[in-house]
Amino acid sequence: MAGQRLKQGGRIDRRKTLNVRFDGRKLQAHPGDTLASALIASGEMIVARGFKYHRARGVYAAGSEDPNALVHLRTGARHEPNARATTTQVFDGLESFAQNSWPDVRFDASAGIGLLSPFLSAGFYYKTFIGPFKGTRYWMFCESFIRKAAGMGRAVKINDPDNYDKLNAFCDLLVVGGGASGLSAALTAGRAGADVILVDQDFEPGGSLLSQPVGEASDDWLEDVLLELKSLTNVRILTRTTAFGAYDEDVYGLIENVSDHLLAPENDQPRQRYWLVRSKQAVLATGAIERPLVFANNDLPGVMLAGAVQTYVNRFGVLPGQRIVLSSNNNSAAQVALHLARAGADVTLCDARPTLPAELSDPLLAAGVTLLTGKLVIKAIGRRKVNAALIVPVDAAGRATGAAQKVTCDVIGLSGGWSPVVHLWSQRFKKPVFDDNSGSFIPAELGRETVKCAGRMVAAQTLADRIASGVTAAQAALADLSLDAVDTSVPAAPALPFDTGWADDILPVWSVTDAKGKTLGKAFVDIQHDVKLTDIDQAHREGYVSVEHLKRYTTSGMATDQGKTSNIIALARMAELSGKTIPQTGTTTFRPPYTPVAIGALVGHEHGLHFTATRYSPIHDWHLAQGAKMTEAGAWMRPWYYPDGSETLSEAYRREAAHVRQHVGIVDVSTLGKIAVQGPDAAEFLNRVYINGWKSLKSGRLRYGVMLREDGYVMDDGATACLGENDYFMSTTTANAARVLAFAEHLLQTAWKDMKVHVTTVTDQWAAFAVAGPKARDLLQSVVSGADLSREAMPNNHFVNAVINGIPVRIHRMSYSGELAYEVYVASGYAQQVWNALHAAGTPFNLKPYGTEAMGALRIEKGHVAGPEIEGRTTLNDLGLNGFASSKKPFVGSVLRGREVLTEASRPTLVGLELGSAQGAKSGSLIYAKGVAAKGHGEGWVSSTTWSPALGKYIALALVQSGKSRTGEEVQVVNHLENQTLSAKIVSSHFYDPAGERQNA
Amino acid sequence: MLRINCPVCGTRDETEFTYGGDATVVRPAMDETRAQLWLDYVFNRDNPRGPHTEYWHHVQGCRQWLVMERNTLTHEVGECHLAKEAC
Q1: Does pLDDT of A140 surpass 70?
Q2: Are residues A660 and A682 both part of a single domain?
Q3: Which of these, A136, A464, A740, A940, has the minimum number of CB atoms within 10 Å of its CB?
């Protein structure tokens, strides 16, 4: 007999029926149902297949701890794998599907794999696929098949059509858990005026109170408290919201399932919202999860947690079976038995304890419950679902002491005590401590903390105790917030029958075995990962002692449920086998997230263009309008090349570079880092951070400078202009701008506090264009007023203030391309006008824009170093920059650059390569001497490479061991990634115009 | 996530800052030529379990370098002041 819907009762709306399907079959579902309750109500016993053995699995729990009922939800782009049916609120049009089964979850073709189970025990994969063969190739081969057979849901590769939101929030008090204790805490703090956020993962607040029968006294209590809470404007109540992580400084991560209970998000709402809450205080009232007992076939559909059976009856009006056997070691199952009997089920309660007190047994017997004391279920009998329970008398260790009896049933409900949900507390602080009284791990007393715990989470037992502990926790939080608790008399706890909790008289039995301690068949500890009790035993035999190792070797507790129902059983078994106590054995570490979190929710809007900031030059739009192909340079977008018609990159940059050498070109260099260095000690500061001297630089001049890191390697280079006394304008490379500024700030604020210097970024305030080529001067002179750009008036390394079309500009004479060149600096807001003016004036001079690729070709022809050479591992000497270093003054890195490893003669140094081939060298190719085998790391590498229009051949910059002395040598240039070997000749890195006549023209 | 009490901007998320390492190291004087002192300044660090005095740069805020106490064991954050005002 399968589960069925009761005629009455439950917190569902029977007047409305929703269209909900599972594998295409229509379910009986009403508003208020979860997918799990709808599945049970519709008689769907088998909802999933096991991870390894493909055994049939049914709904096991009623909350996020369920290890079994993982399903696919929805179709198309909104398809979602590994969704928990027990927390999925049904909606009209919900389509769900079984996963990890074929052709059908009810008749899975792979179920025969269970016959192989002796070979699939703990460590099977390590031993079989990694041990016997060297390397991982064999494993990789087998893995593809294993992954198909084992595993869980299937993801889709279609883009998620929904939005996910991210929200930062602040509050005085975060209350996690909307059960009796959490609600009491929120009400107490809310009345005192605290800014409270109350979160609950369920779609209805109430926690375990929702599992009481409709009309019970607790309903009135809940209604009163919720009514008052909702009237308090300083209390925010978030349902469908899981606090999944607790972090330092009282920061909490929440996921609000805004639209998961709808077919698709409505009114532009996000699918989910990620809250990052900074709370001054927190009350954790996260409740407890029921523990199962382990016995043979305990994974059979129909085996469930006792409290879950109670929830399905009372909250959803679904009776999971007609004949129900409960197997328990504590008082909490008594209430379950009573409610099930009242709902019309034939109930047998097995209790491990030899006797039950009369106040429990008398009402149960009166309600028609069959009591079997001193007995537990040792085996579930049935194929694909429970038909009967095998019940044996047991001793205090759960071992059989006598003959078994068979009781026909369709559901077996288990209660092995409860485990407080200590996850968030433990994430934040440390491992919980074992409480012998309740047989569970609870938070340790820490004393000073901003986190208070309440309710079942601290093993509070009766409803009155749970409510009181919520009030007490809130009062403590209010005291720490310096707020007075105005009225602490939350509505009095209602009286419930058998409001016993689990702790009193619990007999800590964890598993049920025969007299020798063996299970009568497969007995699962971690049902989601198919880890059996015998796997724990095997790990113990193989010498595993630490619970952390046990977990990883057996994979117990490593599935999507993170062992919420199983971890303590695994370590209790470990303790038993090693003759230790549970506290001696310890528990594994709890880490976020508490329940699985969609990556999309953590990403929020930060994807695509919003993944990171993108920086644009002030004339970005012009580049786009010209059809420029853009390239990323750090956060910047820069014009890469300007294709003429259908030109390729290769064709375009060759044309652009050649044009600069023949006529005149203009390139947008606004992305250069620019730092205003100002103050009486500015020159001294420059003198310290640059390797060359700056005291002699006069106003109106600029100078190329190189910086080292503290460890003596080259950090950056660029030109700095002296605008006036105490006022310098530093430029850095685009890539290192932020780093140089932070470094300068560090030095000035920590080591050189007495220096009177300010450094300020002005990168965004100034645009800059390099105008380069033989006609650069003629062009600029034709458009500039107020400045004489003649060779005599303005040699290299000079600048002049001038005006273009009424707009003030500063013109630096400095060449990167090797041609006669100027850099025009203009305030960003006027950049486009000046750029336009230059283009208008440039027509008679055949001015053309060029991109970064041509700029690179030109600088490689000149042997100028850039990012590929200043890459953090090169010294001044390596790059041929030693001549700039002053010997008269110390500078950053001046001592450590003299370290032995930095001065070895054999270090690779900068050279040029001329390739005789019709192909260029790939950057990163390795250099080998002619005739030697191309093995190992070689004698150097190619750093930058280009076609040289000026030389008519492929050239490259490279760093080669003892490079300078090898001029003329033929070497091999090997690209191991593409199996390409080229021949090249080592030459000077100054390929073109080594005397610099063109730039000094 | 750490929350850092910047003396200029108030309490802000750790994500606005970059870490700057041990704040107790003292940069040698510019004219110091002994390599060992520079090596100690640049490379050699203790790895204490417990209280640690360290630099944080409010790089997404006021751009001040801060000196902050942090317990490496508990992640507890203590006093925080401007580096340039440290004694």
Answers
A1: no
A2: no
A3: A136
**pLDDT score recorded for residue A373:** 96
B3: nearest CB among A249, A747, A753: A249
Q: What is the pLDDT of residues A621-680, one digit of tens each?
A: 999 999 999 999 989 999 999 999 999 999 999 999 999 999 999 999 999 999 999 999
Minimum CA–CA partner of B4 in chain A: A249
Classify A245 in phi/psi space as left (phi over 0), alpha (psi -120 to 50) or beta.
beta
- Domain boundary (A585, A615, A639) is at A585
- pLDDT of A132 over the 60 cut: no
Residue A961 placed within a domain: no
Establish if B8 touches chain A: CB-CB under 8 angstroms: no
Q: Give dist(CA B32, CA A891) in Å, integer.
A: 10
A51 is a domain residue: no
User: Is B84's CB within 8 Å of A753's CB?
Assistant: yes
- Could you tell me if residue A413 is left (phi over 0), alpha (psi between -120 and 50 degrees) or otherwise beta? beta
Interface test with B, best of A612, A715, A745 (most B CBs within 10 A): A745
Residue to substitute from A429, A690, A895, interface B, most B β-carbons within 10 A: A895
| Residue span of the structural domain in which A470 resides | 164-288+420-480
Whole-number average pLDDT of chain A = 93
Residues ≥6 apart with Cβ < 8 Å to A941: A908, A924, A925, A926, A927, A958, A959
Quote the CA–CA distance of A474 and A511 in Å, as a whole number: 38
Q: A895 and B27 in contact by Cβ < 8 A?
A: no
pLDDT in tens, A762-821: 999 999 999 999 999 999 999 999 999 999 999 999 999 999 999 999 999 999 999 999
Fold of domain B3-24+35-85:
Folate-binding fold (3.30.2270)
What token pair was written down for A332? 């909490």
> Which site among B2, B3, B15, B30 would you substitute to test the A interface, given the most A Cβ atoms closer than 10 Å to its Cβ?
B30
Looking at residue A672, what DSSP letter applies?
Answer: S
B15 shares contact with chain A (CB less than 8 Å)? no
Same domain for A652 and A522:
no
Please say whether the beta carbons of A398 and A291 come within 8 A. no
Tokens of A776: 């650069």
**Is B19 within 8 Å of chain A by CB?**
no
Does the structure show a pLDDT above 90 at A63? yes
Q: Is the peptide bond before A795 cis (omega within 30 degrees of 0)?
A: no
**Closest by CA position to A924, among listed A915, A912, A937, A906:** A937
pLDDT in tens, A523-565: 999 999 999 999 999 999 999 988 888 888 998 888 888 999 9
**Do residues A563 and A648 both lie within one domain?**
no
Domain count, chain A: 4
Same domain, A747 and A703: yes
Cβ <8 Å between A898 and B35: yes
Flag whether pLDDT at A142 surpasses 80: no
Under 8 Å between Cβ of B55 and B21: yes
Contact flag B65-A750 (C-beta cutoff 8 Å): yes
Q: Tens digit of pLDDT for each residue in B16-59?
A: 999 999 999 999 999 999 999 999 999 999 999 999 999 999 99
Claim to verify: residue A744 and residue A827 sit in the same structural domain: no
**What DSSP assignment string belongs to A725-770?**
TTEEEEEE-TTTHHHHHHHHHHIIIII-TT---EEEE-TTTEEEEE
Q: Which of A746, A748, A896 sits opposite B38 (nearest CB)?
A: A896
A488: amino acid identity, one letter = T
Segments in A383-511 forming alpha helices (H): 423-428, 463-480
Shared domain check, A730 and A799: no
In sequence order, what are the beta bridge partners of A926? A941, A974
- What is the secondary structure of A410-425 as a DSSP string? SEEEEES-EEE--HHH
